[in-house]
Amino acid sequence: MSSHRYIVIVGCGRLGSYLANQLSRNGNSVVIIDIDESSFCHLSPEFSGFRVEGDATQVAVLHGAKIKQADVLIATTHEDNANMMIGQVAKKVFGVKKVLTRVFDPKHEEILKKLDIEVICPTAAAATMFLQAVDRKDTSEKEAQL
Amino acid sequence: MKVIIIGSGKTLYFLCRNFTSKGYKVVLINNDRNECEQLARKLSAMVICGDGSNVEILEEAGARSATALLAITPNDQDNLIICQLASLKYGIPRVVALANDPDNADVFEKLGISAFSLTHIVSSLIEQRASLEQIVNLFPVGEGKVNVTEIILNSDSPVVGKQLKDITLPENSLIAVVIRNNQPIVPRGANDLQIADKVVLITLPENHGQVLKAITGEKDRKNLE
C-alpha cells in the first residue's frame, strides 16, 4: 500500500479511530475531525496526525482540515446523511480524488449511485457474510451426516 | 398544487398555515411525536411522524405526486439529502433546502439543490434598511444575483424633478416602476420623478451602492458609515 498520502477522516468513533490509527501507523498524514473532543480518546498513542474538533458539515471546518490538499477523505460519522453530504462536498466542491463514505441504510444505495459517490455499507457487507456463513454451515452439516 | 414540508418549530407551522390558506395541499413531516400531534390538531394538513430522509416516509407523504418540497430542518445534512432524494428519486419539480450554515447555500447550489440562507436574507435586509431610511423594501431575486429595491424619493434626491431620459444610472440597472399616489407607472424617458414617489429599482449587488447614490444623493450615503 502506498503511504505518505494526506487523508482526512470524519468521525472518531470505533471505525474512524481504527482507520486513523492504522493509516497513521502506515506513514500517512492523517487529520481526524469529530464534533466531540472526548471522542479523540479512541486514538492510540501511535497516532501522529492532527485532531480537529468541529462539525464537518460546515465548510469552514473542512477548510480548517486543509481538505483541498487531501488525497483521500473517509466519512464515518454515525449519521448517514452527514456522511453522504460530506462525501459529496469533498468530491464535488473540493475535488478530493478518493472519497469513501460509510452508509448504514442499504435503501440509500439507489440515490448514491446517481450521486456518484463510493459507498461502503456495513449492513449489506455483514448480511453477505452472514448469508455465506449460513450456507457454509449447511454444507458442513451435510458432510457430517454423510 | 401539493407541497411537502419537512421541519419543525414555528417556521414550519406558519409556512404550512400560509400555504393551506392559499389552497395548496400540504403534507408535513416531523420526527417528534408530540409536535406532530400538536400540528395535526392545529392545521388542516396531513402530518406524518418520521425521518424525512427515509424513502418510506417520503412515499407515504406522496412524494411521487408532489409539485414542491421544502426541507427546513435545523440540520443541513438532512435538508440536502431529503432534497436530493426528492429531486433525483421522485422527480419533484421544485425542491428547496434551508442552509442553516450560510456557507452551505453555495455548497448546495454546487451540488444541484436550490438553497436559501436566512442569515443572508435577514442580514441583507437589516443592512439595507439600517443604511437608508428611505428604503422601504428590498429583496434579492435570481439566487441573490439581482436586487429589487423600493425607495421613497425625498427633497434631497438629485433625480427629483428630472425626466428619466436625463438621469444617468450605472450600467445594468433600471427604474422599473414608479408608484405615485398609489398608482403604479411603468416609466418612459419622458416621465419625470417627483418628491414622495416610490421608485422600484432593479440593481445587481455590484452596482447597488452606486445606483442608490445616484437616486438618493450623496448626503444619505454618509449614514452608511
Record the SSE blueprint.
The complex is a heterodimer of chains A (146) and B (225).
Chain A: E1 6-10, H1 14-25, E2 29-34, E3 50-53, H2 59-64, E4 72-75, H3 80-93, E5 98-102, H4 109-115, E6 118-120, H5 122-145
Parallel strand pairs in A: 1-2, 1-4, 2-3, 4-5, 5-6
Chain B: E1 2-7, H1 9-21, E2 25-30, H2 33-42, E3 46-49, H3 55-60, E4 68-72, H4 76-89, E5 94-98, H5 103-110, E6 114-116, H6 118-131, E7 135-141, E8 146-152, E9 174-180, E10 183-185, E11 198-203, H7 208-216, H8 218-221
Parallel strand pairs in B: 1-2, 1-4, 2-3, 4-5, 5-6
Antiparallel strand pairs in B: 7-8, 8-11, 9-10, 9-11
Order of helices and strands of chain A: EHEEHEHEHEH
Radius of gyration of chain B: 22 Å
- Which second-level CATH architecture of chain A applies? 3-Layer(aba) Sandwich
Return the CATH topology of the largest domain in chain B: Rossmann fold
User: Which range best describes the helical content of chain B: under 10%, 10-25%, 25-40%, 40-55%, 55-70% or over 70%?
Assistant: 25-40%
- Derived structural class of chain B: alpha/beta
Strand order of the largest sheet of chain B: 3-2-1-4-5-6
User: Which CATH class of chain A applies here?
Assistant: Alpha Beta
Largest sheet of chain B: 6 strands, parallel
What is the quaternary state of this protein? heterodimer
Which ranges of chain A are low-confidence, i.e. pLDDT below 50, for 5 or more consecutive residues?
none
Strand content of chain A: 15-25%
Low-confidence stretches of chain B: 219-225
Please write the string of helix (H) and strand (E) elements of chain B: EHEHEHEHEHEHEEEEEHH
Strand order of the largest sheet of chain A: 3-2-1-4-5-6
Question: What's the overall geometry of chain B?
Answer: elongated
- Within CATH, the superfamily of the largest domain in chain B carries the name NAD(P)-binding Rossmann-like Domain
Number of distinct helices of chain B:
8
Mean pLDDT of chain A: 91
